Amino acid sequence: MLSPSNSLACPHGHRSTDLAVAQRSGTWMGSVTLPCTYMPSDGFTQQTLIWSMERDDSTSTIFRRDYSGDHVLLSQFRNRVSVPKHIPGDASLLIENLEISDSGHYTCQVIWRTKNNRVITREVTTTVKVVKGKSSSKPIIRAGELGLTVPAGARTSLTCVASGSPPISYRWFRGTPGQKALLLSRQAELVWDSLQPSDTGKYYCEVENRAGAGAVQQSDAVELTVTGESLSPTHDMSYSYLTCTNREQGTWPVDQSLPQGPHSHSSPPLG
């Protein structure tokens, strides 16, 4: 029989099918794992795994694993669902980039065949509720270890910190909110490898996420002061083609209008 934790018992006993129900919640555009596990047992071979979804009195098969491989049968779940391949006894379903319409009842059905060709079926059901999520909060700016007054030639950074449901988008500007400002970066962290006096100025960031329906939150501006003389006499604010690295999405070119100086790196939001 099945346990409340959505574990399929070793396939033995006189009943062909048992049912247990669990609850899972997820945030829009987030991810959720629906548990379905069992202890592998000698004499029983998994033949088929089926994940189905019931919503509005209609049941559809999402995922099927059999001798021919893995198959995602509903187009709305393609490239969003997966089941571990190399963990015996783990048939849990991972759903990514959750949509509100993903709310419903999900059933994991496992079919085994015994040595004497007897077919045994077990299943577990999980109820999923997808909620809109939390819009991003007003961000705050954290300065690097040296603070906001930094000697020329030093390395420093400014980090934009905000809470809210992921994914959160970041933008860094040089200037003051509400006035004309220069876009510097689309990452959470702004980094200078070697500060120059010309980097002195005001900086602020803004954030938004999908849960906020496009509402932009701006930080207060902070003033960065670079003291001493430049250690690189040839340095200027010439415009060049920079490359920024996002740890999650790889590398891509940044707008050619970015001044050479600060670089940007991604960092996870709080909360």
TrEMBL record:
Annotated GO biological process: negative regulation of complement activation, alternative pathway; negative regulation of interleukin-2 production; negative regulation of macrophage activation; negative regulation of T cell proliferation
Organism of origin: Amazona collaria (yellow-billed parrot)
Molecular function (Gene Ontology), one example: complement component C3b binding
One Pfam family hit: Ig_3
Biased composition (Polar residues): 257-271
Residue ranges of every copy of the Ig-like domain listed in the record: 11-125, 139-223
InterPro entries in alphabetical order: Ig-like_dom (IPR007110), Ig-like_dom_sf (IPR036179), Ig-like_fold (IPR013783), Ig_sub (IPR003599), Ig_sub2 (IPR003598), Ig_V-set (IPR013106), VSIG4 (IPR039939)
Descriptive protein name: Ig-like domain-containing protein
Region (Disordered): 250-271
